Amino acid sequence: MKTSPYRPDQSNLAYSVGVTLDRFIKLKQSDFPFASGELSQLLRDIALAAKIVNRETNRAGLSNIGGAFGQTNVQGEEQQKLDVIANIRFMRALSKGGEVCAIVSEEEDEVIDLQNNSGKYVVAIDPLDGSSNIDVNISIGTIFSIYRRKTPVGSPVTTADIMQPGNQQVAAGYVLYGSSTMLVYTTGFGTNGFTYESSLGEFFLSHPNMQAPENGAMYSINEGLEYEWPAGVQSYVKSCKERKFQSRYIGSLVADFHRNLLKGGIYLYPATLKNPSGKLRLLYEANALAFIIEQAGGKASDGSRRIMDIQPESLHQRTPLLIGSVELVEDAEEMIRNAESEITGINH
Ligand SMILES: O=P(O)(O)OC[C@H]1O[C@](O)(COP(=O)(O)O)[C@@H](O)[C@@H]1O
Ligand SMILES: [Mg+2]
Ligand SMILES: [Mg+2]
């Protein structure tokens, strides 16, 4: 019996391009034998909030959306109006859904305890990534990490629920608000990308089972801080130039990460004099992207340690970040190690 060209291969239906996010989430639920649908619903809630924030970012040029909000956040950074709008939108979606018991947000000083003891999940979120690019119409994003709480459902939320290392994530993702809007996420069974079709209000699978090229010839780093970098990073970037690598830096972590995920490359934000522990935040920037890149065959470290094995100690703690193609990250780690042993005279 001839199979109809219109009936995609049932065994791999989830991965056929054009599947909606909703359908993909449903089909992939079978990856979790004891799934009860709460994580699926949480992913849908995040996708809904992303659609609303997407609409707001498209209007960022209009006066009432663009520009500074006139307050600073706990990191001492001036908040942009869109930082605050995105934070409110995601907070609402996460608290309304009912699956979440606590939220950690870049824009909130403390943990938001939703007093929802039936909530199984903890979410750490960077509602708007790349804030310095909002008003100049360059790609920006949202980054999120999802953990299952450690304490029993029904009991009050504790530090143990919040301060979990990245290797405890059950899901992580980002939204890229760029020339097209994409949602890329993992639940530990590979990394998949969905493109938003705004006229239909749907995310469609466009990048099934994403694989980061093992190698590449592209590096992303803020060269303006060159004189503040550790010696190992200076020698690594010098070697990239000697090997005629392309330098690409957008200044929005999500956008730089996404390009390197697709094309092969490495993004580095090392320790600097201004930020001796690096600039990027472990809980709601580095951990999520580390989970995604590892599920796509890439690597993420702080120069020596696997990002996802770092035990968090504070909510907004920062970390140096090297992330991207596995061979490039290992290359950089080796040069950093060698430079350090030259300085200390101790061989690692
Ligand atoms: O301007 P710099 O020092 O290069 O830093 C740029 C980095 O800072 C960030 O903007 C920090 O993220 P937020 O915009 O969410 O605060 C990253 O997106 C970006 O990669
Ligand atoms: Mg950010
Ligand atoms: Mg941000």
Automatic annotation (TrEMBL):
Its cofactor is Mg(2+). Keywords: Carbohydrate metabolism, Cytoplasm, Hydrolase, Magnesium, Metal-binding. It is found in: Cytoplasm. Binds 2 magnesium ions per subunit. Mg(2+) 2 binds at D126, D129, E285. Substrate binds at D129, G130, S131, S132, N222, Y249, Y267, L268, Y269, K279. Residues 20-208 form the Fructose-1-6-bisphosphatase class I N-terminal domain. Its main location: cytoplasm. Residues 213-336 form the Fructose-1-6-bisphosphatase class 1 C-terminal domain. SUPFAM superfamilies: Carbohydrate phosphatase. Its EC number is 3.1.3.11. Belongs to the FBPase class 1 family. This is Fructose-1,6-bisphosphatase class 1.
